[in-house]
Write a structure and sequence with these properties.
By secondary structure, the protein is mainly β. Helix content is about 5%, strand content about 45%. The longest helix is centred in the middle third of the chain and has 14 residues.
Length: about 375
């Protein structure tokens, strides 16, 4: 279950350095840099697929990732041909009213807070989720979609998630309904080709996390019109109050569960310039209290001394006519070192000119 993991900004992380980015790690290696990859050309993942609807063709990996290792994270369930610039797709969805009629979700699309992910497609190679949208609220239930520009096409991953109580961890509960909502909204936008608006295509990319059903199909959309990308500034800021028991998963410890409590401040600003450039900045900062507990009692009984965990995270997304860049930096540290079990550093960069890199460094205290 993803509920085991604590996330800030929609990336699955563990407060108290118990894990990061859903990658399985070996505690025996935790005194060394765990992963450091930086190369002008990261190798393509295995399992690329080609789709050939009536309105074109595209070749891409049918999953997203959180690095360049080719480990599936989320399924790709959307593809856009034609007027497929992610900035135009963003404008098309944000232009629509939220009232969809009886029995349908009543929400409007806006810029989303979410962790950076990677995807791969030809001819672009590895690309990042610089633009993300949500229909609903971060602090409740929301539809969440990430866009990845792979050249003539944009591919996307959409899902429905909800905020796990007492954390900032979003739990995915549906893929196919979110895909159908995006499709329905583009149909009502009037921007699809009337003769060949869309096709379903089997990618056989069922949910790799094993906790949510996905039919393995993607909706491929033929976008022939677009909304102008207009100058705008959008800001959001709120505090997530942690208060949850989580299992320890990394760095040896004499306890199995921790109660994590305290506030984390989340801030995001998205700017679209007069020339149409998209710039997004996200920051999360918090000082949390961490207490080893026995989870079988009500309430959980403390079994160790309380210490602190400092969490800090920064995301950046940039999209221009010539450049798409997404980055994410995470720093977590348990304090003081005599009580805490270590610190974690994760850095992902996805961009042009040989800037692709991924570093994960976990240091466990003796």
């Amino acid at each position: 279950m993803r509920a085991r993991l604590i996330s800030v900004g929609g990336t699955f992380l563990c407060v108290a350095l118990v894990c990061a980015c859903e990658d399985p790690l070996d505690p025996a290696q935790s005194s060394q840099p765990l992963l450091n990859t930086s190369a002008p050309e990261q190798p393509a993942p295995s399992g690329l697929m080609t789709v050939e609807p009536a309105f074109g063709s595209a070749t891409f990996w049918p999953y997203t990732g959180v690095n360049y290792m080719g480990i599936p994270q989320d399924p790709i369930n959307l593809g856009f041909a034609g007027q497929a610039d992610p900035r135009a797709l963003r404008a098309a969805l944000m232009f629509l009213p939220g009232d969809r009629g009886s029995g349908l979700p009543d929400c409007t699309w806006k810029d989303a807070i979410g962790g950076a992910q990677t995807a791969y497609g030809e001819p672009a190679g590895w690309v990042g989720s610089a633009i993300q949208l949500e229909c609903g609220d971060y602090e409740d239930l929301r539809f969440h979609v990430r866009f990845f520009d792979i050249g003539d096409w944009t591919i996307g991953g959409a899902h429905l998630d909800w905020l796990y109580p007492g954390t900032s961890d979003h739990i995915v509960i549906d893929w196919d309904g979110a895909e159908q909502l995006v499709l329905a909204d583009f149909l009502r936008s009037g921007l699809l080709d009337g003769a060949a608006p869309w096709e379903p295509w089997e990618l056989d990319n069922h949910d790799q996390q094993g906790d949510t059903d996905h039919d393995g199909y993607a909706s491929l959309l033929n976008v022939v019109g677009k909304k102008d990308v207009s100058r705008s500034i959008a800001r959001q800021q709120f505090v997530i109050q942690f208060g949850a028991v989580i299992p320890t998963q990394l760095c040896p410890a004499p306890w199995d569960y921790l109660y994590v409590a305290g506030p984390v401040d989340l801030r995001q600003q998205v700017i679209v310039t007069p020339s149409g450039n998209f710039i997004s900045q996200f920051h999360a900062n918090g000082m949390l209290e961490v207490t080893p507990v026995n989870p079988l009692t009500t309430p959980p009984t403390p079994i160790g001394e309380t210490y602190r965990a400092k969490v800090s995270e920064h995301h950046k997304g940039i999209v221009t006519d010539n450049v798409t860049l997404a980055s994410q930096l995470l720093i977590q540290a348990e304090l003081p070192p005599a009580l805490g079990r270590g610190r974690l550093f994760v850095n992902l960069n996805v961009g042009p000119g040989g800037s692709n890199s991924y570093t994960m460094d976990l240091r466990c205290n003796p």
